[in-house]
Amino acid sequence: MVLPAACLFDLDGLLLDTEPLHARAWQQAARHFGRELTPEELMALRGRRRLDCADQVRGWIAAAGGPALSAAELLAVRQPIAEALLVQAPPMPGAPELVEHCHAVGLPMALATSSSREAVALKAAPHPWLARIGVRVHGDDPELERGKPAPDVFLLAARRLGVAATDCWAFEDSPAGAAAAAAAGCRVHVLPPPHLDGPALERSYPGEPTLLSNLHQVIRALEAAP
Fold it and tell me: How far is CA 138 from the centre of its chain?
């Protein structure tokens, strides 16, 4: 196994344990308008940009006979809930150690996230180790044309590092993010949510990604590479 040219990291659900908090915020906002979201629907929102999620959720609300909302009306309910929750998000196990290891050995890193710059700043504030990742592509980056599952975020992150996406390892937790990384040509590593196993795991992550049980595995793999 050869060392990657760079590591491209998702943020939510991969480096920070935010996804249950995002799900709670979307659920509470949808419930405010009379629509209960299913676990499958909440899973489909993982890894996607805020406005893309808002469009999806307001479509579900309208289809269930609820009000025809604008994205702004839905987000006016959802965002205060999310912001209060997300500052509490802990790191995923092994995430600080992995980022510090990459920094120590000089392995280039980039953040490839669907979260906006403002949202990343909010979530990252309690976690100074995230400052090690200086190259970042946010969901509202002016150079980003399409969100995940399109490959744009990973292609742009690799380009800013000056490496080929095909020489990078990409780390994701969501099906949308894994699809984006695969479409970019990266070697895809997936840290799946703990509730997925068996057939559900295979359906969510087609292809042949490297499935991880924790991020400490990645440190060991990097240490073992020539």
Answer: 11
DSSP state of 46: T
**Are residues 11 and 37 located together in one domain of the fold?**
no
What is the number of other CB atoms lying within 10 angstroms of the CB of residue 121? 11
Give me the phi and psi of 207, to 5 degrees please.
Answer: 85, -155
Is residue 44 one of the residues assigned to a domain? yes
Kindly state whether residues 98 and 134 are assigned to the same domain: yes
Range of lowest pLDDT (147-151, 172-176, 206-210): 206-210
Taking only the tens place, the pLDDT of each residue in 48-81 is: 999 999 999 999 999 999 999 999 999 999 999 9
> Annotated catalytic sites, by residue?
10, 12
The CATH number of whichever domain residue 124 belongs to comes to 3.40.50.1000
What distance lies between CA 125 and its chain's CA centroid? Answer: 17
d(CA 8, CA 16): 15
